[in-house]
Amino acid sequence: MEKTQAYIEAHKQRFLDELLELLRIPSISADPAYAAEVKRCAEKVADFLRAAGADNVEVIPTKGHPIVYGEKIIDPARPTVLIYGHYDVQPPDPLELWDSPPFEPVIRKTELHPDGAIFARGACDDKGQMFMHIKAFEALHATGELPVNVKFMLEGEEEVGSDNLGIFCESNKEKLACDCVLLSDTSMIANDVPSITVGLRGLSYVEVEVTGPNRDLHSGVYGGAVANPINILAKMIASLHDEEGRITIPGFYDDVEEVDPEERALLNQAPFDVDAYMADLDVQALFGEPDYTPIERTTIRPSLDANGIWGGYTGEGAKTVLPSKAYAKISMRLVPHQKSDKITKLFSEHFVRIAPPSVKVKVTPHHGGEPAVVPRNTPEYQAAHHAMKQTFGKDPLPMRSGGSIPIVALFEQVLGVKSVLLGFGLDSDAIHSPNEHYGLFNFYKGIETIPWFHKYYAELKK
Ligand code: BES
Ligand code: MN
Ligand code: MN
User: Fold this and answer.
1) How many domains is the chain partitioned into structurally?
2) Number of the ligand 1 atom closest to the C-alpha atom of 406
3) Which atom of ligand 1 is nearest to the CA of 187?
4) pLDDT in tens, 178-198
5) Is the pTM of this model over 0.90?
6) Cα dist. 307→25, 87, 205, 277, 304 in Å?
7) CATH number where 240 lies
8) Bridge partner list, 107
9) If 0-12 CB within 10 Å is exposed, 13-18 middle and 19+ buried, where does residue 41 land?
10) Is the CB–ligand 1 distance for residue 161 below 6 Å?
11) Domain boundaries, position 219
């Protein structure tokens, strides 16, 4: 690995410049107006893969945004690592809260990133983290030190549910045959506390519409006698939690895994300062089930949150209206062994049931996904552990994450392999938020660590 590490050291500045190029492309998968930019980004990723030495590089069209594929098969007898990442990004809104434009990357120092961090939409999630794999591969290939076969599958629809990637996996099982999937689309605990993600939450996402009167009304003429759908919706949403923060939907917790005390102790080993957490968010108190620590509430326990709520008049000044309709988007994060479809159904039935006779309710399910757990007694987990130990100088801790990557459960189901969640971002990197950033330390550490993963994996699979 010496040549590889020397190669990385010698090409650091170019690696960064190339990532900045990728970050300048607004590949916003959710907004159809940006479809051409998403495609342009896919082409750019394919160019980088080719330049890094990958063979059979293709930009594969789908019903949505394209999938970029490439591979290097050095020896069919060697293990094969399928590298997954996504080049699409979340919409950057609200734009006015960014300190610099989201698609004009700049490097600034922060308290947690004294060496500097790249500020741009997608810097961490997931262009920066995906790009580490292309550069680690380039270094291994250029120095003749690549110890495994690699296949790259990089998608442009992760942020909108990966529907077409699921279909692609189903119909390309042979092409994608591999021994494990490796991805960096998660976080680690801190720059001096390396960790490997061993669990992801699943997701159920619904939109609700509450209809009161058949038209908007004068709130003076009708107010007091006609139910206001916004008032009703607010009350319905509020009733979804009890006083202690438990979700009140009947049956919601039926399949929730009771994590054993040993694993809970391990999860709570991660350094966590409640006061610093509250100070960072500028809140005076936290929320949630009293029998679980904040770490547990966001990882091994399910959650329910309104993501948006609207209706009536929200413009300048006052308009006295009793609106006809009110809406909300609601997400539920799921844990093993909850099933997305079942939870969505329980939610829908409950929400319709609790609606008073004065309104009509419609629930529309959006994309969902299953939770995932990663076992630690596998060659891939061990390889990741040794790789991080090598470059950080200490044992990484196993950690569960509260986020969701629905495709991970699908990899196991369709391709029959486990995934390794080797992320280098920090939870404080503001992914999906204004001023998303990714530390230069993290970017380079990832590029240095990934080659060790491949080396240890090749050895452990012998
Ligand atoms: N990379 C994130 C998921 C993530 C974030 C995992 C932080 C671990 C730590 C991914 O891009 C994402 O945002 N997923 C969505 C779900 C998807 C179906 C839109 C999410 O978690 O909201
Ligand atoms: Mn991501
Ligand atoms: Mn994301």
Assistant:
1) 2
2) 18
3) 9
4) 999 999 999 999 999 999 999
5) yes
6) 27, 24, 10, 21, 9
7) 3.30.70.360
8) 118
9) buried
10) yes
11) 202-256+302-369
